[in-house]
Design the sequence.
């Protein structure tokens, strides 16, 4: 995107000054979101159309800030990483006007050029309308989805150009890393991080500073820093957004970690399902190396630290740290027993610190603004903020960042804007459950609406922060099917090393199938609980230990629904096909016989022009009749 | 005819024998990774990019070249979901079945795609080798659920109907190609 960096290695000040010089004439900046979500909605086409429309209108615009042709203009168009409000994409913000346009299409650009860029006013119809109050919001400041968040780690994600190291430097980037190398001892850094109370954002919640101290005391000289970007939890994408939107913050965090433990090499392990994140991190590593922040002479200190980017190959279990290390070593990604912990014996048998993306991206903030500042946000034992991926049946889906201790009510109703029904309309019914922490987590219900969410409070009710996926489910969701969905996932992803995890998840899945398909009894439920507890106790790694959580937690909170499946052989939400009892409503049936002709097993009978009947003994519940009926007379399938 | 020199000593044989010649690419990939057994996964990834799957003969060749037991290479190739031992279609449709997509009805799209492409039970690739339909656990575009990815391009907020339209577009493109 940008032209070659000045070589040889430049100082941070030079980079920042270069950005300052190039951008000083810019008076207005149009930022188009180029995160995975918005790109999928067509943001790159909008970008291109806007550039063309501006040229046609006879205005000049800066697309490449470092274009050597020297073209200058008070208007700049840039791309950013994920701005978080993916559902409303493609997103376009205009600064300093403070405007945020949502769902922008290429055909909208002419109007944007005319109204906003030429005349400085807003294109009303492209502004976000808050669905509950039906008011138009100008920009981030008035949209509850944004204004109620506390964006720290994500703050720069939606603003800066992720492929421009100079802009990152201009915003104060890499200063904390340089200070760590030039002015601080490893002990001081570890203490600062420990004092901040930062806990691992990948789900474990282990104090990061403690992890670093444990690695620091190990003998060198070879030590590693590994960034765990194998974000496999279905329903979570915060790491993806950080890697795409602000890759330099992750690299800076890794540099500080390297200084803190005395590492000379590191790996960034990124899921292969995130091609854009891989590309952006690779580019960022290369730029940092060219500037002398990585390599054999980090910040001119003569110390070595270099990074390699490795793409995963599609194994959920590799999110587990020892499995991830095995994968980097070119082996099957199977977890190893702990201890020894990676801090003592990690990658290639050397002491290794392995941190999650979000954890590493928090580090530069802590080092720059201090542990005390970091502690101002969040709760006593879980300081700071946490990003959550808010998805499912909720008005505003996307990526949010809130302080630890925020309640579910605030997240679902105020930031998320409320629950929607199956047709996407705002529902006045409360949500049924919120699944937190993906396949390792549990369900939260209405009863937990005012629970301050942090590591410990969630653990105390059998759920966990996990990686931070929050999937809201409305009243039409069958909890047994959801539990089965997660079980199917963990069963597929079980690496097969531990018998309990390998076989136990399979048995649990079979038991859930029994419940869903009408073969279950009350004994099935107690067996499910027993197997679940055993799998949790007897598995080696986090995957197996937490795999039964979704089942156990739904059993705890929605036992009546399970019982309806096994006792009355009925699915309260009508989602389980095998338990369906199709029925023809006499009041609606006109006797057109359309269903009779479609039924593959001749289960429907009746006289022409009179209401028909389904023989439940013959019916195979295929639903063909219901599809054929034009009068909505057939219900229950 | 002259072939690029290959450090594993297969130059002459590869030039003469078309069956061996195809390993030249593999040798290039091996060299690019310094023939480092630790780099087995990137090596297999790059090979798969070339062949669209991992042919068994290539796996054995890689094992011998890296000095690893073939079982170890095969073990890695079968462990990771990304590696395919069967050829995949030209268009790889990966439908996300993560939680968010699942609760928003991804399975209906899956069924629609399979019936559109006339795939029988257990079959994932069309007979003309044009399409492969798979599910993946999460593409990380949950805000746009349900999502699918065709090769590297992500499409969001899909419905069974819009997914079928995408397939039609690709079929049309192939006809005109």
Sequence:
């Amino acid at each position: 995107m940008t032209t070659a960096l000045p070589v040889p290695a430049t100082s941070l000040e030079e980079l920042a000054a270069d950005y300052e010089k190039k951008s000083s004439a810019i008076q207005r900046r149009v930022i188009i979101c180029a995160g995975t979500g918005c790109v999928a909605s067509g943001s790159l086409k909008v970008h291109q159309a806007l550039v063309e429309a501006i040229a046609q209108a006879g205005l000049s615009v800066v697309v490449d800030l470092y274009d050597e042709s020297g073209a200058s203009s008070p208007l700049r168009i840039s791309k950013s990483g994920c701005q978080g409000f993916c559902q409303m994409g493609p997103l376009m913000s205009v600064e300093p006007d403070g405007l945020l346009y949502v769902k922008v299409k290429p055909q909208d650009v002419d109007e944007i050029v005319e109204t906003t860029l030429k005349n400085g006013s807003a294109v009303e119809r492209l502004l976000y309308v808050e669905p509950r109050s039906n008011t138009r919001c100008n920009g981030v400041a008035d949209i509850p989805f944004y204004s109620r968040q506390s964006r720290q780690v994500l703050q720069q994600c939606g603003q800066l150009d992720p492929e421009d190291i100079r802009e990152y430097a201009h915003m104060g980037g890499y200063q904390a890393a340089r200070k760590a190398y030039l002015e601080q001892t490893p002990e001081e850094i570890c203490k600062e991080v420990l004092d901040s109370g930062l806990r691992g954002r990948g789900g474990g919640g282990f104090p990061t500073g403690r992890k670093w101290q444990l690695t620091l005391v190990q003998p060198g000289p070879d030590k590693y820093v590994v960034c765990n970007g194998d974000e496999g939890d279905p329903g979570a994408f915060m790491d993806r957004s950080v890697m795409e939107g602000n890759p330099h913050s992750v690299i800076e965090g890794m540099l500080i970690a390297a200084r803190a433990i005395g590492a000379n090499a590191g790996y960034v392990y990124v899921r292969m399902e995130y091609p854009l994140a891989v590309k952006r991190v690779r580019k960022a590593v290369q730029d940092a190396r060219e500037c002398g922040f990585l390599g054999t002479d980090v910040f001119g200190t003569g110390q070595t630290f270099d990074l390699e980017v490795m793409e995963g190959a599609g194994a959920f279990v590799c999110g587990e740290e020892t499995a991830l290390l095995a994968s980097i070593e070119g082996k099957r990604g199977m977890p190893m027993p702990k201890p020894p912990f990676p801090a003592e014996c990690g990658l290639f048998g050397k002491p290794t610190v392995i941190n999650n993306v979000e954890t590493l991206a928090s580090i530069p903030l802590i080092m720059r603004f201090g542990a005390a500042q970091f502690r101002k946000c969040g709760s006593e034992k879980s300081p700071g903020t946490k990003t959550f991926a808010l998805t499912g049946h909720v008005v505003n889906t996307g990526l949010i960042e809130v302080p630890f201790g925020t309640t579910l009510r605030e997240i679902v109703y105020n930031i998320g804007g409320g629950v929607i029904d199956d047709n996407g309309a705002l529902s006045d019914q409360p949500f049924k459950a919120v699944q937190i922490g993906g396949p390792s987590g549990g369900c939260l219900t209405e009863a937990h609406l005012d629970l301050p969410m942090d590591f410990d409070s969630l653990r105390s009710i059998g759920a966990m922060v996990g990686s931070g996926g929050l999937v809201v489910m409305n009243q039409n969701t069958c909890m047994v099917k959801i539990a089965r969905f997660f079980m199917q996932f963990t069963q597929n992803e079980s690496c097969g090393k531990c018998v309990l995890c390998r076989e136990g998840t399979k048995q649990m899945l079979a038991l859930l199938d029994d419940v869903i398909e009408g073969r279950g009894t009350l004994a099935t439920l107690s067996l499910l609980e027993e197997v679940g507890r055993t799998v949790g106790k007897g598995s080696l790694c986090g995957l197996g230990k937490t795999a039964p959580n979704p089942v156990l937690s739904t059993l705890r909170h929605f036992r009546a629904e399970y019982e309806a499946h096994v006792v009355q052989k009925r699915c309260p939400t009508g989602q389980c096909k095998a338990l369906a009892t199709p029925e023809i409503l006499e009041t609606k049936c006109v006797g057109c016989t359309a269903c009779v002709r479609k039924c593959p097993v001749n289960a429907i009978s009746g006289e022409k022009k009179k209401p028909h009947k389904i023989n439940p003994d013959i019916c195979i519940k295929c639903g063909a009749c219901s599809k054929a009926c034009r009068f909505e007379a057939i219900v229950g399938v | 005819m002259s072939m690029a020199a290959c450090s594993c000593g297969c130059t002459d044989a590869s030039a003469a024998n078309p069956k061996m010649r195809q390993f030249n690419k593999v040798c290039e990939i091996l060299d690019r990774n310094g023939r480092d057994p630790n780099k087995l996964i990137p090596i297999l990834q790059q090979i798969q990019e070339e062949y669209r799957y991992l042919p068994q003969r290539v796996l054995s060749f890689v094992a011998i070249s890296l000095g690893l037991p073939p079982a170890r290479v095969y073990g890695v190739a079968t462990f990771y979901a990304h590696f395919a031992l069967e050829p995949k279609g030209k268009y790889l449709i990966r439908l996300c079945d993560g939680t968010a997509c699942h609760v928003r009805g991804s399975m209906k799209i899956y069924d629609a795609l399979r019936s559109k492409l006339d795939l029988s039970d257990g079959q994932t690739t069309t007979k003309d080798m044009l399409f492969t339909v798979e599910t993946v656990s999460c593409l990380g575009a949950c805000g746009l659920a349900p999502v699918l990815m065709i090769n590297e391009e992500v499409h969001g907020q899909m419905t069974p109907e819009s997914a079928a339209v995408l397939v039609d577009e690709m079929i049309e493109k192939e006809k005109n190609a």
